[in-house]
Specification:
Length: 437
């Protein structure tokens, strides 16, 4: 995006926190589960994950939070209505996953150093919430959002979308095929910032995976077509205009509340591969490191992180956790806060935005996530995910620009003892598969 605003101008209340992270997550859209034996998490089968908002400090954020709650309640009521028709054995308790999940900045520096924007807190992202027509929310529900200084905007879409195979498995003898077609639950908004439009999407998959993505569309900035210094790309017949290359560094802030507790633990895993020296194949050694202090982490081949519940275990006695799976990212070395792909900080409510923070952390407090990593012990971690996209424009970016997505997934690891969609006749196959005939 590009707007002729002072990029460092702080405009309180410009944020539409994508605190739109509502709804009952998985089972709301999953095929109706098969009957289960009685008892909590019997056979380790699925429980419904859900998200709950947390009460923010800013009045405006509170209003949005309220909306999130209303929607979450509505979803819950519907879910309960559905469950009323189920025998007791099939009613399952939800498992809390997140206390809060929000978009935490979109930082856009241009390659020539001439412009740099913090779209959420410096360029009016929240004011740009767009009204959506029903056609933009196919099969779903549009909800009205109150935006400070703007008014009501019918801008929040909640809908479902076909996903295709959730799983497929043939028996050894080929006599039977188990397969399921799934739907995702999607919650999204569109915000216009300058000539760019951002789609903020939260996606809940029937297998428990949560996806956070931002899609950039709209139009290239018409005032940034002057890159004759080699920092752009020629667009138009011959080479009439040079669109200036730039980056979109998108940040999310996640506060987990696994099983209702914020006492989560962060673990990092690294695997080292050794090529074979004699007989046998290559070998791999995987090492776990518990992240006990605040950390600015860098993605690396065969490295991953998970957030582990300090209290909750699944029916097999394994600690519940969510793995952070980043999508493709271009890490931008230009600022301290864009240098790293992930940050773990001791949670503080005033630390809301990864850069140009407008949370009230007090006079002289640092205003970006890299500076909040200062050696504190992690007892209540916040997770900041940074996914960057270096945008070198192309002819196809006009007009309008096709949506370009960037984001990450939260993938359940040992949240349930088996696949939450396991059909009844496979429910006994926990531990060692027996495909039978
Ligand atoms: Cu761009």
């Amino acid at each position: 995006m590009s707007m002729q605003l002072d990029p460092r101008t702080r405009r309180r209340g410009t944020v539409l926190a994508a605190a739109v992270l509502l709804g009952t997550a998985t089972a709301a859209t999953a095929p109706r589960p098969p009957p289960r034996p009685a008892g909590p998490d019997a056979h380790g089968t699925a429980r419904r994950a859900r998200l709950l908002g947390r009460l923010p400090h800013h009045p405006e954020a509170r209003r949005r939070h309220h909306l999130a709650h209303v929607l979450a309640l509505r979803h819950r009521r519907r879910a309960h209505a559905r469950q009323d028709h189920l025998p007791a054995a099939r009613r399952r308790r939800p498992i809390k996953v997140l206390a809060s999940a929000r978009l935490a900045q979109i930082h856009v520096p241009y390659d020539d150093g001439g412009a740099e924007y913090d779209d959420l807190t410096g360029a009016g992202f929240g004011y740009g919430l767009q009204n959506l027509k029903p056609a933009e929310c196919p099969g779903g529900t549009l909800t009205t959002v109150k935006v400070a200084d703007v008014g009501d905007v019918k801008g929040l879409c909640t809908t479902t979308r076909a996903r295709g195979h959730a799983y497929r498995m043939a028996s050894d003898g080929g006599t039977k095929v188990w397969q399921a077609q799934a739907k995702d639950l999607l919650v999204y908004t569109v915000n216009k910032v300058g000539w760019y439009e951002y789609i903020t999407e939260w996606r809940f998959t029937a297998d428990g995976t949560i996806g956070a993505n931002v899609g950039a569309t709209g139009s290239l900035s018409p005032v940034d077509y002057n890159a004759t210094d080699g920092r752009g790309w020629p667009l138009g017949k011959g080479a009439r205009g040079y669109a200036t290359s730039h980056a979109h560094n998108v940040f999310w802030k996640l506060d987990f509340g696994l099983d209702g507790s914020t006492k989560d633990r962060i673990e990092q895993f690294d695997s080292a591969v050794t090529a074979p020296t004699g007989g046998g194949g290559p070998t791999v050694k995987t090492t776990k490191t518990v992240v006990t202090k605040e950390l600015a982490g860098d993605a690396k081949n065969m490295r991953w992180w998970r957030v582990v519940s300090g209290t909750g275990k699944n029916a097999d006695g394994h600690a519940r956790s969510y793995e952070i799976v980043p999508g493709h990212t271009d890490t931008h070395a230009g600022r301290g806060f864009t240098k790293h792909g992930i940050y773990f900080t001791q949670s503080r409510a005033c630390e809301k935005f990864a850069s140009n923070n407008i949370g009230d952390c007090g006079q002289g407090a640092p205003d970006s996530v890299d500076k909040w990593v200062n050696g504190e012990t992690l007892t209540k971690p916040s997770v900041w995910v940074n996914i960057g996209f270096h945008h070198i424009a192309r002819d196809e970016d006009q007009q309008p620009m096709p949506v370009h997505w960037q984001g990450f997934q939260l993938v359940p690891r040992d949240v349930t003892a088996m696949n939450p969609l396991t059909p009844a006749d496979l429910a006994s196959q926990n531990g060692q598969p027996d495909l039978g005939s």
